[in-house]
Specification:
This is Peptidase MA-like domain-containing protein. This protein folds into two domains: 123 residues, Zincin-like (2-Layer Sandwich), CATH 3.30.2010; 115 residues, no CATH class. Helix 1 links the parallel strand 3 and strand 4. The longest helix is centred in the first third of the chain and has 19 residues. Strands 1-2-3-4-6-5 form a six-stranded mixed β-sheet. The chain is an alpha/beta fold.
């Protein structure tokens, strides 16, 4: 038994394996424990299959109140915030038993959100940086099978430089503050586009090439080397297709589209 120093509650821990390597810490009377374990295994196996690798054991801690979550993060969290992965293979997330009560999420969102956080830990193994944020968050959305859409009336679709408004932590957080739905949606749509039209292997190769550090100029150079085109040209195509898609005029497709590998 371990003690969560942030909540003061006694948590029981069990080890999982062999397919999903990790530990789960929980309140002994949590009625949703089996579901959390099942969803953890699902998320780990899904991410492992996507990245074609395994990672060190993950420690999943189930959280039971907004106060506990605020204590863990060190600040007041928004109602949509339900969990996070840190830099030491730990994930803190609301238990399914309180998931909808402590947030504005549906309980059915738990599996995909947990998979999203597990994906962050896999990304850390190939790119030990959170930037560019849109690439990491968009990839986590895609791997988890989450969906997000923007309305074509959003002015973001008239700004090909939009991804550079959500590339660093500061710019991402600033945009979250003014347009909460935009960063995650745009990140998902762009990474989904890159995977569908150019394959997931190029996205992973791009992350590896960054070698754990980010600046705009260097990123654009790496992008051009891997994709064979200037990022501005690909962004122009992306935004053009999104405008058409949102208006319902053309099925999302590309003559570059190939089977994902």
């Amino acid at each position: 038994m371990s003690k969560d120093i942030n909540s003061g509650k006694n948590l029981t821990s069990i080890e999982l394996g062999p397919q999903a390597k990790g530990f789960v810490s929980f309140l002994a009377k949590d009625p949703s424990l089996n579901r959390a374990i099942k969803d953890f295994r699902y998320g780990y196996i899904r991410a492992s299959s996507f990245f074609k690798k395994k990672i060190p054991k993950v420690k999943l801690t189930l959280v039971y109140s907004r106060e506990e979550m605020n204590n863990l993060t060190g600040h007041k969290t928004a109602s949509w915030f339900v969990g996070y992965a840190d830099s030491s293979s730990k994930i803190f997330i609301f238990s399914p038993s309180v998931f909808d009560r402590e947030s504005d999420h549906s309980k059915k969102d738990f599996r995909k959100v947990l998979c999203h956080e597990i994906c962050h830990l896999f990304i850390r193994q190939i790119h030990n940086s959170y930037e560019p944020v849109w690439l990491e968050e968009g990839l986590a959305y895609c791997v988890a099978g989450q969906k997000s859409r923007l309305k074509n009336s959003n002015p973001i679709f008239n700004n090909p430089e939009a991804i550079f408004l959500i590339d660093t932590r500061n710019r991402w957080n600033k945009t979250i503050g003014s347009q909460p739905d935009v960063p995650y949606a745009l990140a998902f749509l762009l990474v989904d586009f890159l995977i569908r039209c150019y394959s997931k292997d190029r996205v992973i190769k791009l992350l590896i090439s960054l070698e754990g550090r980010y600046n705009k100029k260097r990123f654009c150079q790496k992008f051009r080397k891997i994709y064979g085109e200037d990022i501005k040209l690909i962004l122009k195509e992306f935004f053009s297709r999104q405008n058409i898609k949102q208006k319902g005029g053309e099925k999302y497709a590309s003559n570059r589209t190939r089977e994902n590998t």
